[in-house]
């Protein structure tokens, strides 16, 4: 939403315009802690990453 404030507006009208704007709801963020510990691996994560990177060569 756009609010147009002119130089000729009074302080009261500016405050009313600002209050008329409703803040947007915050988007839900990813809760990474919800997935903590779900993936069970037997190998070192760095070794897995090295293997994945070597596939492209």
Describe this protein with a few key phrases.
single chain, 57 residues, mainly alpha, 2 helices
How would you characterize the overall build of this protein?
The mean pLDDT is 86. This protein has helices at residues 11-20, 45-54. It is mainly α. The chain is elongated.
Topology summary:
Elements: H1 11-20, H2 45-54
Give the structure's gist in a few sentences.
With 57 residues, the protein is mostly helical. 35% of the residues lie in helices and 0% in strands.
Rg measurement, Å: 26 Å
The quaternary structure here is: single chain
Overall form: elongated
Q: What fraction strand?
A: under 5%
Helix content: 25-40%
Structural class: mainly alpha
Sequence of secondary-structure elements: HH
Q: Largest sheet, if any?
A: none
The pLDDT mean sits at 86
- pLDDT below 50 for ≥5 consecutive residues: which ranges? none
What's the end-to-end separation, in Å? 50 Å
Total of DSSP H or I helical runs spanning 4+ residues: 2
Strand segment count: 0
